[in-house]
Amino acid sequence: MTENLKSTRFNDGSNIPCVKDQSIWLRLDSPAYCYYQNNLKYADTLGFLYNWYAVNSVKLCPTGWRVPADSDWVQIEGTADTKYNMTDSIWNKLGLRGFDAGQRLKSVNGWRKGVTGTDELGFSALPGGERLSRFYAGGRSGFWWTSTEASASSAYYRSLIYSFELVARDTHPKRMGFSVRCIKNK
């Protein structure tokens, strides 16, 4: 998909709970979504933030689509990067990696003043921020879940940060609120 997911329902028609209360969000171990700063004005452009429990439901994306696995993101990064292809060992590490994949995936507009991407692949990544104990980095960084679990309490994600042309890969607690992109099933 060329935008962040904005679904209030799973693909079976059941509702995904919208959780605005911060103390409730912090204790969740079940699917939920919100919008940045709990302000609906951000939803149209930035999409919704989902916890990993919503991702793990395997019902979050429309039928025929899925949340990309960690390995799917390696393919996206390796295709976008002009220096490292998808088989390069650089994609196995955590933290910032690649050469210019982040710049090429970022949207041309919508980032912090003075920051623009080239969006050469039509990915149109926008900085939707994140949520855990508070909302953070909206307008400056984008975070996307993978469907790949790292441990009982964490999962892999990708991040594009306003001041870097690279892509970050790391793990975070499943209670985090991140954006989601869906890809077509093979």
Structure summary:
By secondary structure, the protein is α+β, with helices and mostly antiparallel strands. Helices cover 17% and strands 21% of the residues. It has helices spanning 22-27, 43-46, 52-56, 70-80, 101-105; strands at 33-34, 49-50, 65-66, 95-97, 130-131, 135-136, 141-149, 154-161, 167-173, 183-184.
Please give a structural write-up.
The chain has 186 residues and is of the alpha+beta class. It has one domain. It contains five helices and ten strands; from the N terminus they run αβαβαβαβαββββββ. The longest helix has 11 residues.
Keywords:
4-stranded antiparallel sheet; single chain; globular; 5 helices; alpha+beta; two-stranded antiparallel ribbon; about 190 residues
The H-and-E topology, N to C, reads as: HEHEHEHEHEEEEEE
Largest sheet: 4 strands, antiparallel
The helix content, as a percent range, equals 10-25%
Radius of gyration, Cα only, in angstroms?
15 Å
What structural category do the secondary elements indicate?
Answer: alpha+beta
Number of strands: 10
Whole-number mean pLDDT = 95
Biggest sheet, strands in spatial order?
Answer: 4-9-8-7
* Shape annotation: globular
* N- to C-terminal distance: 14 Å
Content of β-strand: 15-25%
Number of helices: 5
Question: Layout of helices and strands, plus pairs?
Answer:
Elements: H1 22-27, E1 33-34, H2 43-46, E2 49-50, H3 52-56, E3 65-66, H4 70-80, E4 95-97, H5 101-105, E5 130-131, E6 135-136, E7 141-149, E8 154-161, E9 167-173, E10 183-184
Antiparallel strand pairs: 1-2, 3-10, 4-9, 5-6, 7-8, 8-9
